[in-house]
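FORM 7B: Structural annotation worksheet

SECTION A. Query
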Amino acid sequence: MSNLVKSLYDNIPGVLIVLGVLLGIQLGVGFLSYLGIFYWVLFRFDLVPISLLCLLGILYDSFSGPFIGLEMCLFSVFALIVYLEQRLFRQLQFGQLWIRFGALLSIVFIGKFIMFPLGSVSFAILPQLVSFFTTFLLFPFYVKGMHPLYQRLSTI
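SECTION B. Predicted structure
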């Protein structure tokens, strides 16, 4: 029975990231996906397979991207940066972690700004900025909501 419970808990980060991507697509807040990716890659990278991020990136691009592969690339690079810097990120105070999240989100924003014209689609800056700042401001609420779940997962 405990193996069943553990396998269910192991799928929770992936399910939450999928929900974030689908919610981001539905609401038009594309940066929302990066909340789950940042949090779960930072604290439980072993439960977030890169293949999931690639598939979600392709799914996202098929609904709202300028061309297939942009979000897949951005999700993967974002997760890689968080993974490589996770020891540093874990030592930071919350305010510093929030600023680092904003800096990484800015890199994604710049990446989109550079790559959108390559797909012959104009980059609508105002909706992207609204999405960026909405996601940045939701970070404390997401962390506050996910931290008890993370603590529960870390004890299993």
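SECTION C. Observations
The chain has a mean pLDDT of 86. The chain is about 80% helix and 0% strand.

SECTION D. Sign-off
Analyst initials: ____
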